[in-house]
Amino acid sequence: MANLKSLAKDTAIYGLSSIVGRFLNYLLVPVYTMAMAVESGGYGVVTNIYAWVALVLVLLTCGMETGFFRFANKSGEEPMRVYSTTLLAVGTGAAAFLALGLGFLPYIAGWLGYGEHPWYVGMMMIVVAMDAVQSIPFAYLRYKQRPLKFAALKLLFIFLNIALNLIYYVGMDGDDVGYAFLFNLVCTSTVMLCMVPELRGFPYVLDRALLRRMLRYCLPLLVLGLAGILNQVADKIIFPYVYPDKAGAVVQLGIYGAASKIAMIMAMLTQAFRYAYEPFVFGKSRDKDNRQVYAQAMKFFIIFTLLAFLAVMFYLDILKYLIGRDYWEGLRVVPIVMMAEIFMGVYFNLSFWYKLIDETRWGAWFSLAGCVVLVAVNVLLVPRYGYMACAWGGFAGYGVAMLLSYFVGQRRYPIRYDLKSIGGYVLLAAVLYAAGEYLPIENMVLRMVWRTVLLLLFVAYVVKRDLPLAHIPVVNRFFRK
Hints:
The chain is mostly helical. It is built from 20 helices and no strands. The chain has helices at 2-26, 28-35, 42-61, 64-72, 79-103, 105-112, 118-143, 147-171, 178-194, 208-242, 246-284, 290-314, 316-319, 334-350, 352-356, 361-385, 387-412, 419-438, 444-465, 477-480. α3 (42-61) runs antiparallel to α10 and α4 runs antiparallel to α5. The longest helix has 39 residues, at 246-284. It is globular and about 70 Å long. Keywords: Cell membrane, Membrane, Transmembrane, Transmembrane helix. The chain crosses the membrane at residues 12-29, 49-71, 83-107, 119-141, 153-171, 177-196, 217-234, 254-277, 298-318, 330-350, 362-380, 386-409, 421-439, 445-463.
């Protein structure tokens, strides 16, 4: 029992630090979009470069974070030898990347479209190299069960980054996009300094035989990681190359990136569910009735995300003030991107069938298939439809991955999902959304009241059908009297 309590506490700290951190980082969106005029394309530059950063980080870490956990806990291995080997391997790769990147910086920056501002790219090369190295000490902190330092360092970066951005973009009324990258570099360097205790006090040994075994284990994870990250960032990387107006590409990408951030509320809610669901699934894997439990969990996840979808769409007239007024034309992508996020969440929940039977290769195939669809939609349709094609590309890509995982999973590890009930909720949400979106009510207050009534109707249906008040903790006390 003591071990379970410790696990629950650590999970809460890791989860809250990531979710709260992501929410606080989200607050930079209004800062950037209000400081950077849409015609400057500044936020488009931020969107594009951070997409590249996410992709390169996956390549540099190469799944070695997971490999460290696997081999540090393996019988017969010396944990500190595994740690030093992992650090040296990732550190060497990061150093080689940085040397080559900075050595050829003018050419790389020109190829990316930032020939006039090569140090935008140069600063983020330094950042991503340090991030790759830091991923291993962060894994070590988790291995040593030190969640407080883990969370403190994560939040230090975010609070310091927000403070510096507020001082420059709000306090000093600045608008230079380069400072966004500079502040990231300062914050990442600060965290690196705080990690010095985790980088010393032990002999650095590169065990080549161990490294070969780790790479054999990690390379399939790299394929899965690349497919996963490409599904998230490929549209933002591809867009400048396929959009016909090269000068206007960063402007359009900035509008898409800013509007999509509103839809990322769904991603934060999905992540919150994920932190609770993942340990729950593996904890239930030995129970005889686990498949029925998974089916119930899937239904409640979909209910949860549909409620979030309706809440965001019904109050979009308020939420749109999170981004600059000049970016509002992109708000039409919000429902599409939110549906794509729902598909991704369902795909995540479906993914446990191949994890539980140790056939993770299926995840790579499904993710790659989704990525191919996303890229194809972007390449073929962005030249004609602009950033709307990006939104539909994500919708199609995640939709394909979700459907493949479902149909193959029903053959390999069948679970009787309550499709009739789920379909009913989807239909109800669609009807309520149409009623709230397309009924013309000019007065904003009356429109908000009408949409609130519709949202409460959905909640009432959930309570009546699947979540009776008498079954809810605390509330049920009133029904016992």
